[in-house]
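hey so i finally got around to running the thing on that chain from the lab meeting. sorry it took forever, my laptop kept dying and i had to restart like 3 times. anyway pasting the input first so we r on the same page abt which one it is
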Amino acid sequence: MMNVKHLLMLAVCLLPALLVTPGSGRAVVLDPDTALGASASASSSSSSSSGTVVSSAEGSVRAGDGGRAIRPTFVKITAAPPARVAQIRGTTVELECEIMGSPTPTVQWVHGSGQTADWEDISVNVISEDTPTSVARVVTRLVIDRASRASQTTFTCIGRAAGQEVSSSTVVYHVDSVAHLGNYSDVPLLRPVAAVDTMFKNLKGARITLHYKTLFENMGSTVVLPCKAVGRPLPEITWLNEEGNVVGSLQDARFRTLPTGELIITGLRWADMGSYTCVAKNVLAKDESETFVYPIRPN
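ok and heres what got predicted. didnt touch it at all, straight out
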C-alpha cells in the first residue's frame, strides 16, 4: 500500500505514464498531457466495449482492447531553459533543462556549432535509451565555466525518444561586467556559481549535472538510475534511501552503485517504490539530487 508521502509525491510529479493498480493486474494508459491523479485507488471505473475507462479528478484514462494497455511514445520539454541570458566573463554559470519521455529520452546539450557543449566529458550530459519500457523525467544542467571571446553563444538542450525530438535553445550574451550590459540590459543576468578561494583555483566543487527526477519502470526490470557529476577532484557518489541510509550491495545484493555513479536495482519490486537521493561530494562542495521510482506491473 502507498503511504501518504508517496501519494503526495505522485500527485506533484504530474507524470504521464502507464499505470497499474497494485494487485489488480489491470493496466491503464495515461495520456501524455493528462496529470497523474493523487491515487489510482480513488478513481471510479466504468466499462465499454472497447476497454475500461478509469476516471479521476485530473482526467480519464483508457485500457486497450482485450485489457491490454497501449504504451504511448512521446518526448516533451517540461521545463525549458531561458531563451536569452547574460554571463559575465570569468564566472561559472549554469543552464538547466527538464525533458520527459517514453521510452526514457536521450538528453544532450550542444552549442551553436553542433558540438557537444560539455568540454570536459561528453558523457556527462547524455542518457542513452537503454530501457525501452520506462517513462522518465530527466533533469540536465550545463555548467558553463569557459570564458568566451565571442559576444554570444547559443546552447541547445535536445531530447530524443522513439524517433521523436524536441529542443530548446538559449542565447548566452558574454559581457565583461554588469556595467557593460549595454543593449542587453533587459536580458536576465545568470547568477554566478559560488567562487572558489584563489588557493584552490584549479579545483571545482561537486555539481550534479544529470539525473532522473522520476522514473516509471516495469517490476522485474533492472533499473539504472544515473547521477552524473562534475568537479575537480572527481566527486564521490553515494546513494541514500528515504531513511537516509546508504544503499548498496552490502545492504541488499539487488542494489549496486557503479564507479561512474549509477545506482543499479536488479529485479525491481513494488517495495522498492520511493525516493533515492544521490550525493556527490568532493573536498570543496557537496551536491544532492532526488529520484522517485515508481514500479509498474507489466502486461
